[in-house]
Amino acid sequence: MSVPGEILLSAEVIHRRVETLAAEISRDYRDKPLLIVGVLKGSFIFLADLVRAMTIPVRLDFLGVASYGDGMISSGEVKVFKDLNEPVAGQDLLLVEDIVDSGRTTEVLLQLLQVRKPASIRLCTLLDKPARRVHDVTVDYRGFQIEDFFVVGYGMDVEESFRNLPAIYRLME
Length: 173
Description:
Mean pLDDT: 92
Strand order of the largest sheet: 4-3-2-5-6-7
Helix content: 10-25%
Order of helices and strands: EHEHEEEHEEEE
Low-confidence stretches: none
CATH class: Alpha Beta
Shape: globular
Radius of gyration: 15 Å
């Protein structure tokens, strides 16, 4: 597989940051049970590394959503293709995203979860792209803030390609 563009974040840099995030989350939730909700498909590698680095017991569930379709531009419509398997009422939730850019998908997911009456919801994202923010969402745990360009690797894709790359690349047009 050819490299899709210039490297933005190496595997080593990502690994160190994920360990730091895991330590912060473990500290914040050391005295209470935590349900982590991963957003498929993009967050699966980040989520796997994150939970393996945590020092507290966690439970996992997943939401599957799509907003990009087959291209590099969001369709503006968020489609949920997989819902949670267990109830969340009264539980502390951590929503884990690969990237928050416009905030549209995250806002929809937070609203979907909030009506189910969890005790709390916090947001963790590997990448935060505030230059594209349309919806005001609070990121509680942020891996990296990046500029406004399209990235692939470490779970993120373009047309379902490049998810398996261990680093994050700026996709060249």
